[in-house]
Each structure stands twice: as structure tokens, then as C-alpha cells.
């Protein structure tokens, strides 16, 4: 029987969708403990959803079920899939998110019955998926209920940093609650790019304090003066751009998906 359930969606919190989803879950499975990972994923942004989920799910106990509902406007997939990965269970639309989350791992996926659904919509998870998950939530073996498993699921390529001449090009993957910008440029890739060179420039979108570039990596916010830009590799080894005592996303005019590039001298 599933005890812990997390929720990750792009629903936002201004409508009734999240509350309705939780209410239906508790009606079906009163003993469940529900946890929100995020409901503020940017609409249709599968890359951001994968980033947020990857940085949260492994802190939960093995056997936790992670329900994810983030759509992709380019793929009108009507199917939801269930799979086990890294000791956890995941249910999400078959729109490429599974591949981004697991880095195209070899998965055994199960199709959650569609109940006549022909397209994804705001209440697909509520009206179709949750009722179909009831046997699994109650402890029935997944192969007995949803088998046979398949190794076929929709795959997407992640936004990876790329080297073009003397530039390392990346994008903003996520903006956290402090409006720090988290990019897809990781420390090993940066070190490989910089091998044999010492100087570099991180180019920003808009001038702050009369500067539109950063030429050093620091270890934390405290290494720069208040109001200045701090670029550092966070706990997950991804390059972050922050402003000490300020909101980097707003002040730099940057959003999820915006480019970030590093120029080697």
C-alpha cells in the first residue's frame, strides 16, 4: 500500500485544481500522506519540471509515489504512464517528461487506463488517472493491474550546454523562490570548457550596477557586496546567478528558457 504521495504540477495555486486533486486522493486513500513539491512549474515547461522533481524526489522514502501533471503543448498525449525508478514510483503524462527525469534510462512503463480519454485536459489527472490508480494505491501488484509492461515511452532531448567556438552556451532551467537563476551549465562541463584557459566572461541580459558581465565564480552570496551579482555552482553543481540582497530574475529581466553564455578569453 502506498503511504507517501507527492504532487508536482503546473496548475498554480489560484484555482481549485490542487485542492480538488488532494481531496480526491484523500477520498480514495484516506491513510495517504500528501506532500507538495511544486505547483508553480511554468506552463508546459517539461525541462523545469524535471529539474525540480530531480532535486526533490530522492529525499523521500523509497516507495513514495510521485504524481506529476505538466503538459507539453507540442504533444497532445492522452496517455499517462506508471513506472518505478530509483526506488520510487512515478505517474505522469507520456510526453517526454519521463526521459528528462531519468535521463533516458531503460524503464518498464505501464499504461494507466484512459477511461475513454482522448486528450489531456486540466482534470485528466483528477477524473481519469486517480480512479484508475485505486488498485495500485491499495497495494495490488502493478503487473497484475496494469501489465504487461513496455519499454516504449516518449523521449525528449534535454537542454544541454553546448560549446560553440570560444563560447559555452546554456539556458536558465529554473528560477527559485529568491529569484536566483539556475542554469543547465554544470561544474564538470564548465571545467572541461575552461581547460587550459584562465579568464572568462559570463554575459548577462541586462546591466546591473553599470555592468552586464561577470568575470569570476565565487563560492556563495557572501563573497560579493550587497547589490552585486554572484555567480557560483550550487549544491547540485549547476551554475547559479544571484544578486546579493536582490532579485536576480527581475533585475536582470530573465526568465526560464533565456540563454546564458560564457565567453572564454
Task: Give the structure's gist in a few sentences.
With 265 residues, the chain is α+β, with helices and mostly antiparallel strands. The protein is built from seven helices and 14 strands.
Structure description:
The protein has seven helices and 14 strands. By secondary structure, the chain is of the alpha+beta class. It folds into two domains: about 5-145, Rossmann fold, CATH 3.40.50; about 160-265, Beta Barrel (Elongation Factor Tu (Ef-tu), domain 3), CATH 2.40.30. The strands form two sheets. Strands 7, 8, 9, 10, 11, 12, 13 and 14 form an eight-stranded antiparallel β-sheet that branches. Strand 10 and strand 11 (about 210-215) form a beta hairpin. Helix 1 packs parallel to helix 4 (about 125-135). The mean pLDDT is about 90.
Q: What is the strand and helix layout of this fold?
A:
Blueprint: E1 4-9, H1 17-28, E2 33-38, H2 46-54, E3 65-69, E4 80-85, E5 88-93, H3 97-102, E6 109-112, H4 124-137, H5 142-146, E7 162-164, E8 167-175, E9 181-186, H6 187-194, E10 200-208, E11 211-214, E12 229-233, E13 238-243, H7 248-252, E14 259-264
Parallel strand pairs: 1-2, 1-3, 3-5
Antiparallel strand pairs: 4-5, 4-6, 7-8, 8-9, 8-14, 9-13, 10-11, 10-14, 12-13
Helix pairs in contact: 1-4
Amino acid at each position: 500500500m502506498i503511504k507517501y504521495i507527492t504532487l508536482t504540477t503546473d496548475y498554480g495555486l489560484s484555482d481549485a485544481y490542487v485542492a480538488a486533486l488532494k481531496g480526491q486522493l484523500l477520498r480514495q486513500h484516506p491513510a495517504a500522506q500528501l506532500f507538495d513539491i511544486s505547483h508553480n512549474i511554468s506552463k508546459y515547461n517539461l525541462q523545469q519540471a524535471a529539474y525540480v522533481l530531480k532535486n526533490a524526489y530522492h529525499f523521500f522514502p523509497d516507495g513514495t509515489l510521485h504524481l506529476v501533471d505538466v503538459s507539453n503543448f507540442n504533444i497532445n498525449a492522452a496517455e499517462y504512464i506508471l513506472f518505478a525508478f530509483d526506488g520510487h514510483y512515478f505517474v505522469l503524462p507520456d510526453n517526454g517528461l519521463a526521459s528528462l527525469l531519468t535521463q533516458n534510462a531503460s524503464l518498464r512503463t505501464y499504461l494507466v487506463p484512459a477511461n475513454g480519454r482522448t486528450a489531456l485536459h486540466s482534470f485528466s489527472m483528477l477524473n481519469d488517472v486517480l480512479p484508475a490508480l485505486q488498485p495500485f494505491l491499495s497495494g495490488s501488484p502493478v503487473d497484475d493491474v496494469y501489465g504487461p509492461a513496455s519499454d516504449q515511452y516518449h523521449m525528449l532531448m534535454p537542454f544541454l550546454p553546448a560549446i560553440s567556438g570560444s563560447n559555452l552556451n546554456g539556458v536558465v532551467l529554473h528560477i527559485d523562490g529568491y529569484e536566483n537563476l539556475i542554469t543547465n551549465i554544470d561544474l564538470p562541463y564548465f571545467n572541461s570548457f575552461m581547460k587550459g584557459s584562465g579568464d572568462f566572461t559570463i554575459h548577462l541580459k541586462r546591466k546591473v550596477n553599470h555592468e552586464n558581465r561577470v568575470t569570476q565564480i565565487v563560492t556563495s552570496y557572501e563573497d560579493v557586496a550587497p547589490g552585486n551579482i554572484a555567480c557560483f555552482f550550487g549544491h547540485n553543481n549547476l551554475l547559479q546567478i544571484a544578486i546579493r540582497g536582490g532579485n536576480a530574475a527581475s533585475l536582470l529581466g530573465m526568465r526560464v528558457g533565456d540563454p546564458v553564455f560564457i565567453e572564454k578569453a
